[in-house]
Amino acid sequence: MRFPDYHGGSIVNLMASLTEALGGSAPPAYAPLRDIDTTTWRTSRNVVLLVLDGLGDGFVRGSAGALARHRAGRLTSVFPSTTATAITTFLTGLAPQQHGLTGWHMYFRELGSVLAVLPFVTRAGGAALGKTIDVAELLGAAPLSARLPVRMHVVSPRRIIHSDFNVAHTDGARRHGYDTLKDMFQTLAQLVGQAGAGRQYLYAYWSELDRLAHDYGIGSAAVASHFAELDEAFGHFLRRIEGTDTTVVVTGDHGFIDTDPEHLIELDAHPRLAQMLLLPLCGERRVAYCYVQPGQGAEFADYVASELSDCAECHASATLIDQGRFGLGTPHPRLVERIGHYTLIMKDRFVIKDWLAGERRHLHVGVHGGTSEAEMYVPLIAAQV
Which regions in the chain score pLDDT beneath 50? Predict the structure, then answer.
């Protein structure tokens, strides 16, 4: 198992380095990146962070294009290694220990409901809550844009640029939506080339690699073809902005592994285990938070040990905080209640899933969130132009 290296080798430390380079104040618990020269980052007129959702380090190391040529090393993601936790880290500069977002599905005790965090809808029924709840106040983590003394731009797909999640985490930044890969790089090039703009920070997010990997697998021809398109577009972007005094940093939020139906554990097949749960499974298919009925904790752990020991490791969730899996320093005041009583960390290529009434049953071929090397390590790519 691989866990985040919050002492200088994670995406949290990348954000500490970027924050300091831009003249902001990074959280004291997290040091800047170790063994990475960020001198030019501190003086560049433009600093661009491009996050390619689902881009694992192994994928880049196996290529020979522009991304690989500018690879400076590798970083760990956060725990769990998934978009909801990692993107919140990119937008706040905080680890899950502080920002408190712990996976795709989360139980919010203050709402009495399990939500899908990124679209900010209830898991049961998909009800949107953004019009009735102050999402920024509920989530509570101050956006990085509030701590930077430079102008910040956020470049994200048009369908999500003004989502409740994005708005809550980008207050004070200028938001720009796009529709295609070409549009994204064109928007970035235009922002970088603005005359008299002063020093600025550009955060951009691309999600298509992640979608294709979920649908077809990280080893699929569809993913390979799209990565080649991404790589070519990135190289063209660097040539286009040459001479603009820009630092371009590229990384991923997590990597992927592929799974199959033989490695899917469904709670339908384990009714005794399901009956011990107070709530639906939360978190991820690869890291599931389990809320257990009072007095049944020992029975729950014994069942996992006897029936699922080949598939999952069962941890008392509070010990994962004590071990620093979510980060360093003082935890978010609601972190304990957001990770259940027990956490199942899936082994090998196994995933675990339950289904609520009305949910469409489907299998993701590519999965993430776990602690394998392929899921946890992302590339650090840096170019100065």
Answer: none
